[in-house]
Amino acid sequence: MTAREQELLSVVIPVYQNWNTFGECLRSLLHQTYKNMELIVVHLEGGDEMRGVLENVHDSRLRLVEQKGKNGPGGARNLGMEQARGNWIGFAEADDIIEEDFYEKLIEQAGEGVDIVWGGISLNGGKWVEHTAVCHLSSFEEKLERAKNGASFDKIFRADLIRKHNIRFAEGIRWEDNIFLFQAFYHAREIVTVPGIYYTYRPAPWSEERLVSLRRDAIPAAKEIVLWAKESDITKRQRILIYRKIIEFIALPFLVEVDFYRQMEQLMGRHWFMIKPVLRQKWKKLKRRFFNKHTN
What would the pLDDT profile of 54-73 be if each residue is shown by its tens digit? Predict the structure, then answer.
């Protein structure tokens, strides 16, 4: 066993009502070519559905953790992190599928001084996040400029990074990954991107209920990030970049609403005027995508 293979990887998987898709996700995790893993399944109290899915699974790497109370997937991930024994921590969602060599390729790049290793994301048959080369990113700006979303599941994180800086997911709201990712990127000594490997993201179908909850939680999620940015020792340029990414990751679809727009403007204060030109560019791209989708 090489030094890299001795690194224990903990993968945290929150499971709620999606037991019907979890079986496929779990199989993709159990068949990873990287074997030195523990799979921490965090589920709500009770668990009849869990027993049905897991009754024929006999693997010592599987650990079950019961979540008491509904504090959302962020709470489940925080609980899983607290239980994790690994040197590295990754996250998966119960609807998704992970390529069999995904974690092996990430661990291969987990060298000295590296705190995050970052793979790609496939979505609807296409590439949502794709790295074309192995790149070492050290400045906060270049890390954040690379990001297209606030996802945590396409990366692995050094456990010491999370514990040293008490990095946590937001609890009880949607967009829970975003505050975690901003803090992890800020504190990481170095991030390495890995080309040619993909985490297959299969989001739940859009529904009115889901849209309402995303809209409801967008402002609280943005506020949490803005508060952290104000309390951190960051430059003006970095703060403006953070605010731009809040728009890109969270707020953009809802800015057509006057009330929402005004809340975001108030939240970002005097920096808002610097973000508006970027906002106009994003809106043009969004409208072009919508037009092409509905006319082709």
Answer: 777 888 999 999 888 778 89
Of 223, 214, 215, 153, nearest in space to 184 by CA? 153
Listed in sequence order, the residues at least 6 apart from 49 whose beta carbon sits closer than 8 Å to its beta carbon are 19
Work out the number of other CB atoms within 10 angstroms of the CB of residue 253.
Answer: 13
* pLDDT tens column, 70-129: 788 999 999 999 999 999 999 999 999 999 999 999 999 999 999 999 999 999 788 899
CA distances (Å), origin 203, targets 18, 88, 238? 11, 25, 30
For residue 58, being part of any structural domain is answered with: yes
Structural tokens at position 90: 């990754």
Residue 242 lies in a domain: yes
- Using the predicted structure, report yes or no on whether residue 270 has a pLDDT greater than 50: yes
Calculate Rg over the CA atoms of the chain: 19
Best CA proximity match to 249, nearest among 216, 296, 282, 271? 282
For residue 12, give the nearest of 70, 74, 68, 56 by alpha carbon. 74
Q: Which of 64, 61, 29, 37 is nearest to 49 (CA)?
A: 64
In a domain, 28, yes or no: yes
End of a domain among 201, 221, 255? 201
Kindly report, residue by residue over 133-172, the tens digit of the pLDDT.
Answer: 999 999 999 999 999 999 999 999 999 999 999 999 999 9
Distance separating alpha carbons of residues 58 and 4, to the nearest angstrom? 26
